[in-house]
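Hi team,

As requested, here is the filled-out complex form for the zinc ion run. I kept the field names the same as last time so the parser does not choke. Let me know if anything looks off before we queue the next batch.

— J.
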Amino acid sequence: MKILLLAPHADDVELGCGATVARFVEERHDILWVVIAPVDTLNAEHMSIAEDLGLKRSKCPYFHFDVRHIFERRQELLENLFVIRSSFNPDLVIGPSLNDLHQDHRTVAEEMARAFKNSCSVICYELPWNHISFDVQLLVKLEKRHVEKKLQMAGKFISQFSIRGSYFSEDFVRGLSAVRGIQLGSEYAEAFEIIRWVI
Ligand SMILES: [Zn+2]
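And here is what came back:
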């Protein structure tokens, strides 16, 4: 399966669905992981994670939008996503939720929906601090090793620990994965909203 991961900022995919990414890498899916508004320190931490996962640099491109100002170039983002739709032709796109209140995340979610709603499955990862509501419509079943991998990813974002360390804490990562796992009768899971599901 060809999977496109969309990260408004360099840590969003790791935080939102890092354990699912670990599972998808293990299953040898073809992954393209795009960061839309890069920031130097976070990028280095993100690239170190991608390297650890064995992803090639060419599979982890950056767009060059400005943090908190993505909406000002919304059309350009949409056109970039159309280019990816043509060149990569994903089967599954994973990005932020339409219910995410961060302005960059919301813009990326809307343009993702516009670009891919008629061509493939589109799902949204969970970032609890950004949602007033989040519909748990899809659960990805995970093993302990996938959650351990997510914890390793979280541990790489040293630049963020003093600013918002709770997002990266072991208790939080394990706790949310366990909560979503209980909803599935599994030890661990990650939750997603569905914009479009194609089978
Ligand atoms: Zn973000």
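Two things worth flagging: The longest helix spans residues 12-26. Residues 8-9, 12, 102, 105 surround zinc ion (CB under 6 Å).

Thanks,
J.
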